[in-house]
Amino acid sequence: MKNLWLGILLTMLGAPAQAQTMVPEDYYVAAFNEMSDMLAGRESLSIKRAVYLAEWAYYEGCLDYKTDFCDEINRIVKFLNRFYDTNKLSLYKTGKQMALNEYFFRPYSGNNYEPYTYDFNRYSLDENSWENQFVSKVLKTHKGQCRSLPWMYKILAAEINADVALAQAPRHSYIVYEDKDSLTPEAWINLELTTHQMQPAWWIKKDFEISDSAVMVGTYMTPLTDIQTVACQMAELAFGYFKKFNRYDKFTFYCSSRSLEFYPMYPNAWIIRGKSIEQILLDYLETIEYKVDDYAAHLISLLNETKWRFDKTYMTAETEEIRERRKQRAAEAQKYTHDKLLPK
Hints:
Layout: H1 4-13, H2 24-40, H3 47-58, H4 65-86, H5 95-105, E1 117-118, H6 135-141, E2 143-144, H7 148-159, E3 165-169, E4 172-178, E5 188-192, E6 197-198, H8 201-207, H9 212-216, H10 226-245, H11 250-262, H12 267-287, H13 294-311, H14 320-341
Parallel strand pairs: 1-2
Antiparallel strand pairs: 3-4, 4-5, 5-6
């Protein structure tokens, strides 16, 4: 039996059929349906596949899963496994994470002697391009930022069964894993891939101005489960839709709502849901000459509930001071990368 979400979306946008030409929105519907099936347990949960689907939809199908995604990932995995065995990293409980760190941070034949570094070119005229966020770009260029680099790390970790998780900070993602070898003063390692550094939890909390409440409820600095990670990618699918079509609508509403079923403390998804309801409400009010009927009242109730739930995430509001500090961090990271990380 078709699930409720599938039925709603097929009614809303029309089901893509082989005999029909797919319009750009159809790719998003198809990506949504497959991710939704993963979350519901009808399909195998795959972070790699979920990331691919979001990028595939943006490119309107012009991204091949095998040649543009899996082939390079499989090549990297073979190198990582050889590196793990050759260097006898099985002696360490976090040996697989060590292999990943070496691959990302130092020049080896397996990465063509190009460690993965921050993409400073994103601060150009195309800095707002959603494609700057893509793992497929990292696979080709070995450059990324605070979203694409951790997502690629997580994908590779899943391929070699390394126990790591994504974690969130305001407008930022990073990798966390338990320090089972007791190599650092803290129980968990917080790995910042843009600067190749391990950062203490207190520094992250202070630097990003994260409240105790946000940590306690699981908004920030909390290792995401794999199902939460795919739910996060579902919200990314919705935001990619907005970036591509420059609109919030029923698709972004259903997409963000589905994400929140499995990751209810994700503030970005609540923002997308709220903006979507606002637009649906405005469009509807225009058709009834701005009189509030039962459906409009229902939308207003949904909007109020969304705002209330968003407030409970205790999201850190971005201030001008935070924006300036982020720019300063980027400049410092660029200098650090040039001086310390790039081959001379």
